[in-house]
Amino acid sequence: MDPKKQISDQSDPSSERPIIPVNKVQNSNIEYSITVKTGDFRNSGTNGPVYINIFGRDNKQTQDLLLSGHDKSFSQGCTRKFRINAIDIGKPQRIIIRHEDNLTGWYIDYIEISVHNFLVRFVANRWLSRLKNDQKLEAELFGSEQPAVMYNVEIQTGDEQIEPLDSPVYMQVYGTTTATPKLFFDTKNASFTKDSISKFTIASNNVGEIQRIVIGHEGLGKVNDWYLKNIKVQMLSQQQEYVINKWLSPTLGDQRLFVELSQEKPRSPSPPAPSIYLITIRTADVPQTETTDNVEMIVRGSDGQIAKILLKDYAKLNDKQLFQQGNLDEFEIEYEDIGNIESITIGFSDSKQKVAWLLEDVDIKYQETVYRFQAQCWLSSRLGPNFSWMTIKPDINDDGNIFTFIKHFY
């Protein structure tokens, strides 16, 4: 395939993607019954418009669905129901919900989607506001057919802390059945001060058995240096405790604002170093009118997988503009051994259909082996639903085995 073709010419049927619409049956529409509950807080409604994008397995997804464009359509404390026809994506797994009212914040309690014989609830319990939480007007939510549960969280800030942290703090929990969205901790009083313990209770999805959590802050305060000592998470009969003892800071320690914790890690301030995956992504050297740095990737191995990650959070050079024409961008991920790498899924969400990215190839170095994934393909929602994502397997030798390099290429 000639990588210098324009977007309108991309039609290579050999590109392996999570889903490609190929016939009328696959594209047939069905009815979705959608319920949206707005929180009962002062000024928690939105004037809209409100959009939703629904995702199933294998990156099947609907297009942007306009729920309502009318003023005051989602008022404080209200519950609104909609019936919308859209492409059949099977059982809803996750959604992206957004509104475009920059002047007011919107607090969402939950969204429920009924389709086929499924009733899936997406618990939010968060603001979509330019002034609160992560200051975003959209959120990714994960579904569950089980009732919501309470998470009791206890966070200890270390004695190394000088000034109180005033950046929004969040936690995300991943389990055997689903995940929570980002859960922001409402700090009405001063929290996260020197040698303090902060306690929170928040409702969200029942994720099944807790496998890992991510805790961090958004770096949006006047004080963005936080020394996190430990965290305890209790959900139903499960209780997890993690000892961290590190800075979550843009300037101190490893200069990251979050930490990922799994129950397999020893509860010790000095655990053994995890495995290192070095990822290099090459963008084709052709003009690309509008790109995005919000590229995400899943890495699947014979013994497990690295769940979807936002690559820019793991960039080796924090001040570099990513995924630009001719770029060779490098990322470093610490994760447990997932065995031989079998495939990756890479792409981005682009509901406004503005972004076009010509991906050349991806290399993943683990220990002394480098896996190469050839793409040479445009990723863009303008090509059709789900065409901003692709799933790729590593190169294969003539004998049918995965082609790997022993010596790293950079």
Automatic annotation (TrEMBL):
SUPFAM superfamilies (alphabetical): Lipase/lipooxygenase domain (PLAT/LH2 domain) (SSF49723)
Domain of life: Eukaryota
Pfam families: PLAT
Annotated region described as Disordered, given as residue ranges: 1-21
UniProt cross-references to SMART domains, sorted A to Z: LH2
Record-annotated PLAT domain positions: 30-142, 149-262, 275-393
Stated name of the protein: PLAT domain-containing protein
Lineage per the UniProt record: Eukaryota, Metazoa, Spiralia, Gnathifera, Rotifera
